[in-house]
């Protein structure tokens, strides 16, 4: 018997579906993390602008 090289269409579709599910799960968390980081930057503007005063 001769073995085929490569992937079947079903295998590629399953892989794409899994990647899509992972992106759907991770993307809201990344958006929330970026919002938290922006809020933290807004809360501490004096610490970033005047580092000499804390020394």
Q: Would you give an account of this structure?
A:
By secondary structure, the chain is mainly α. 73% of the residues lie in helices and 0% in strands. It is built from two helices and no strands. It has helices at 9-43, 45-49. The chain is rod-shaped and about 75 Å long. It starts with 8 loop residues before the first helix and ends in a 6-residue tail after the last helix. The relative contact order is 0.07. The mean pLDDT is 81.
Features:
rod-shaped, mainly alpha, about 0% strand, about 55 residues
Quick recap:
The protein is mostly helical and 55 residues long. The protein is 73% helix and 0% strand. It is rod-shaped.
Strand-helix topology:
Elements: H1 9-43, H2 45-49
């Amino acid at each position: 018997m001769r073995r085929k090289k490569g992937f079947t269409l079903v295998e590629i579709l399953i892989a794409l579906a899994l990647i899509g599910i992972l992106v759907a799960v991770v993307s809201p968390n990344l958006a929330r993390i970026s919002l938290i980081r922006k809020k933290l930057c807004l809360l501490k503007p004096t610490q970033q602008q005047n580092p000499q005063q804390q020394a």
